[in-house]
Design goal:
With 272 residues, this protein is of the alpha/beta class. The chain has a single domain, classed as Rossmann fold (3-Layer(aba) Sandwich), CATH 3.40.50.150. It contains 11 helices and 7 strands. Helix 8 crosses helix 11 and helix 10 runs antiparallel to helix 11. The protein is globular, with a radius of gyration of 18 Å. The protein starts with 6 loop residues before the first helix and ends with a strand.
């Protein structure tokens, strides 16, 4: 199933919105949600780091891993993953602006670190890699943007080696009835649509050939992420004040949409 949004719209959105996201999501340019627990409290960035650690553990990524970071954005997580696990990471993203940012970050690293990293512009539905290239595929807050999700999941399966692990999170649609507020502040704002609930997403992965290793409904953490982001949104933003005020309200409306089961968030670990 294809969505009503196009890859070109998504590319344009992320090319143009990078500075806004850096201003209050993460100044290093990492854009994803977080998992909150006693160690994080309500600290959004700690919760984001917690998700990273959780995915490394559940994905069983180590120094022998060859990882594809699908939708790498500015390269922050790919570089962190390569440095912390001492593994090779290739990042791809639809946004040329963000791929350039990632390449510039890589260029200032030590040569030994650079040798374990690569970044290039590519679509999730047409990956420029041979079958079985990677031991792991990692993706955070990306696939919901892809109009043809089935093609993206098939491509992920293709580029993984036999026994390879795909560890990723994605937005889900728990039920099909979406209010006008959720359409405006969630679906249209994020250029997002999906045919998948938490359960049907797993069915789709299995139909491609994956075995589900773990699946976790993280929707309460998505709600908390957006409430914390609403608090982090700058209120004194000069020429951008009106836009930031709109965003802060949109984040609160997004939290309401999670409560109303108009959107959700899942973490999936599956094996080829």
């Amino acid at each position: 199933m294809s969505s009503r949004f196009t890859e070109q719209e998504t590319e344009t959105y992320y090319d143009s919105e990078d500075a806004i996201y850096r201003s209050f999501w993460d100044e290093d340019g990492s854009v994803h949600w977080g998992v909150f627990d006693e160690s994080t409290g309500d600290d959004f960035l700690k919760a984001c780091a917690n998700l990273n650690e959780m995915m490394v553990s559940k994905g069983r990524i180590d120094s022998s891993s060859k990882v594809l970071d699908l939708g790498c954005g500015n390269g922050t997580t790919a570089i962190w993953l390569s440095e912390n696990q001492d593994c090779h990471v290739t990042g791809v993203d639809l946004s040329g602006v963000r791929v350039q940012n990632a390449q510039e970050k890589m260029a200032i690293l030590e040569q030994t670190a650079q040798e374990k990293l690569a970044f290039e512009k590519a679509s999730a539905t047409e990956l420029p890699f041979a079958e079985g290239t990677f031991s792991h595929l990692w993706s955070q807050a990306v696939i919901y943007h892809v109009p043809d999700k089935e093609s993206a999941l098939n491509e992920a399966y293709r580029v993984l080696e036999k026994g390879g692990i795909m560890v990723f999170d994605d937005l889900i649609k728990p039920q099909p009835n979406i209010s006008p507020a959720a359409k405006e502040f969630v679906y249209d704002r994020l250029l997002y649509d999906t045919p998948y609930s938490f359960e049907s997403y797993q069915d789709a992965l299995e139909s491609i050939g994956f075995t589900i290793v773990e699946a976790h409904d993280l929707s309460p953490h998505l709600k908390n992420s957006y409430l914390r982001l609403s608090e982090r949104t700058p209120m004194d933003a000069g020429n951008h004040a009106e836009h930031y005020a709109w965003l802060s309200n949109a984040y609160r409306e997004t939290a309401k949409a999670v409560d109303n089961q108009e959107m959700g968030w899942g973490l999936f670990v599956c094996q080829k």
